[in-house]
Amino acid sequence: MAYFIGVDIGTSGTKTVLFDELGNVITSATVEYPMYQPQNGYAEQMPQDWDNAVMQTLAAVMKDSGVDKDDVKGIGLSGQMHGLVMLDENNAVIRPSIIWCDQRTAAECEEITQKVGAERLIEITANPALTGFTASKILWVRNHEPENYEKCRHILLPKDYIRFRLTGEYATEVSDASGMQLLDIPNRCWSDEVLEKLNIDKALLGKVYESPEITGYVTAEVAARTGLKEGTPVVGGAGDNAAAAIGTGVAEDGKAFTTIGTSGVVFAHSSKISIDPKGRVHTFCCAVPGCWHVMGVTQGAGLSLKWFRDNFCDAEKQTAKSMGVDEYYLMDKEAEQSPIGANRLLYLPYLMGERTPHLDANARGVFFGLSAMHQKRDMLRAVMEGVTYSLRDCLEVFREMQITVDDMMACGGGGSSPLWRQMLADLYGCPIQTLASKEGPALGVAILAMVGTGYYSTVADACKAIIKTNQTCNPNEAAMAVYEQYYQLYRRIYPALQTEFTALAAL
């Protein structure tokens, strides 16, 4: 039996999982680490913490599994996207990594837009200048810490810093590099035009690979620290969402997934490049060679339900504790008692502003239609429906872009709710499936390692052999008709309030 390792370098911790060639979990290990916020809106982590976590978890899975190191045939890397790691001439980390959720770079985004041009930037990088992306972070260091920029000899993303630590190679792959805003997305290579206009030396960047390609091999030093075999191949891997796509079997046209975590993501595979000229959704190279994915994001998905729980559901918390069940289970049961449309109550889930389709940092949450007849169960249902309407907004942009979806997976905490899955099925108009495996990104990059080392011929073939579904929720035609009326009303509320959100922000 051959074995493969998936390493997922997340924001809260690193999880390393050892799989067999059929995708079964043998063992896993997790190590957590902190995030630092030196100022309001800043978010940083220490790359050394990621390195320590990866080495510890690799050693743990090798020791705990009892698997012979000769039988571990490949390693795949997944990780948080967009983070900036800068190394000096001695490969020492120059400063803490500015990570994906950092918001300090608004001025640099304006600088990028002005130097490249708004339309041209979307044509090349498939996205408008965003504070989360890496390019604006590079410019921020150059503008505010010129001494650190002067020392910089290598720029890497979080998982690619780990690749360097494992193999000694400076490399990245197309899916994670897509989130730097320096990659030519249609042509899957660094953009000389963007780099030249931003005056960033291409020599600072790693070599770009496709996600299943072998990028390097485990060094003798790492082998001694972890129990791995020297020379074990390390493939390109993928950014976290692209890795999750492979781990859910989204590797062919028509396939997509919806994640309801703190934020919500709708992600679809496409064998053809398709870029939204309005920049409402992200188009990135995906982990399947020669293909792309589109991704819409709603900021306050599961966050909306958590906010409601924390502020208004003490009784449910106490009851759940005494019953030994999850409080979200009781909240589901309560929301089920309210009809579709929550007795004419709608909710806009813009607690943290919004990305898709409005790209408006000033947008805020709204209960629309609240009356004296409404009860907590109506508000609960309205919150869940409002999040689902927002996710449907993402899907509508895909449809404008001629990207069809007929096979949808549900992931994340919200995906475990039967009520929420039924809402998705009824509003999307397609079956919603759940997965047997919960490993997501780690499984995805282990599959990429299986393909890169020749155990499967293509990513799609590997997914067909390994990914198993366990539940399907079909749309209800009668419910679809009712939801459609409420959805069309929902779509009219934000435009009516847009200028008022701006006025509120100015108060």
Task: Tell me what you see in this structure.
- By secondary structure, the chain is α+β, with helices and mostly antiparallel strands.
- The protein is 41% helix and 21% strand.
- The chain contains 18 helices and 24 strands.
- A seven-stranded mixed sheet has the order 18-19-17-16-22-23-24. Strands 3-2-1-5-15 form a five-stranded mixed sheet, sandwiched between helices. The chain has a two-stranded antiparallel ribbon with strand order 4-7.
- The mean pLDDT is 96.
What's this model, at a glance?
This protein is 41% helix and 21% strand.
Strand content: 15-25%
- Please compute the radius of gyration using only Cα atoms: 23 Å
DSSP strand tally: 24
Distance between the termini: 65 Å
Total helix count?
Answer: 18
- Quickly give the structural class: alpha+beta
Q: What is the overall shape? A: globular
**Sheet with most strands:** 7 strands, mixed
Fraction in helix: 40-55%
* Largest sheet: spatial strand order: 18-19-17-16-22-23-24
Name the poorly predicted regions.
none
* Average pLDDT for all residues: 96
List the keywords:
507 residues, alpha+beta, seven-stranded mixed sheet, five-stranded mixed sheet, 24 strands, 41% helix, globular
SSE layout:
Elements: E1 3-9, E2 13-20, E3 25-32, E4 44-45, H1 47-65, E5 72-79, E6 85-87, E7 97-98, H2 106-116, H3 118-125, H4 134-144, H5 146-151, E8 154-156, H6 158-167, E9 171-173, H7 174-177, E10 183-184, E11 189-190, H8 192-198, E12 207-209, E13 214-217, H9 220-226, E14 233-235, E15 238-239, H10 240-247, E16 254-260, E17 264-270, E18 282-285, E19 292-298, H11 301-312, H12 314-323, H13 327-336, E20 346-348, E21 366-368, H14 376-400, E22 405-411, H15 418-428, E23 432-435, H16 441-452, H17 459-466, E24 469-473, H18 477-506
Parallel strand pairs: 1-5, 5-15, 9-12, 16-22, 22-23
Antiparallel strand pairs: 1-2, 2-3, 4-7, 6-8, 10-11, 13-14, 16-17, 17-19, 18-19, 20-21, 23-24
Helix pairs in contact: 1-6, 2-3, 2-4, 10-16, 11-12, 11-14, 12-13, 13-14, 14-15, 16-17
